Amino acid sequence: MAMTVEAPRSPIAARKSTNWEKWGWIYMRASGVVLVVLIFGHLFSNLIATPGGVHAIDFGFVGGKLANPFWQWWDVAMLWLALIHGANGMRTIVNDYISRPGLAKGLKLALFLSAAILIILGTLVVFTFDPCPAGADPSLVASFCPVP
């Protein structure tokens, strides 16, 4: 089977549509750089800047961090970027290795749905997390919660 590549200035290549592959490629590079900063900032703040290091991380530590809007947005940015970055990488793998169009479409739909569900659930958890739920058994809640 002979394969031809159109000349760059041919009418087919000159149409005015968005090049999603190019933007996906750019997103992977930009999100990768931002993710490195977010992940190493997360690790530094949790393991090095925290007195006690990894041994100090418990439910109370996480509850305290998620009570701070700065860390909420930090974690949500990390969540969104990592999930979209990973889903886009998997989409690229599907494009490269799956030749049956129906299967490729189904896998890409599954990737999109799983990433969207995880983003929604993760965002809800970060912004609605309450380490001291009202009406909970006092023996089950964290020690820093006020006793009713």
TrEMBL record:
Compartment(s) of residence: Membrane
Broad class of the protein's primary localization: membrane
Keyword Transmembrane: yes
Transmembrane segments: 26-50, 70-88, 109-129
Pfam families: Sdh_cyt (PF01127)
Record-level Gene Ontology MF annotations: metal ion binding
GO cellular component: membrane
UniProt keyword terms in alphabetical order: Heme, Iron, Membrane, Metal-binding, Transmembrane, Transmembrane helix
Xref: CDD domains: SQR_TypeA_SdhD_like
Name this protein carries in UniProt: Succinate dehydrogenase hydrophobic membrane anchor subunit
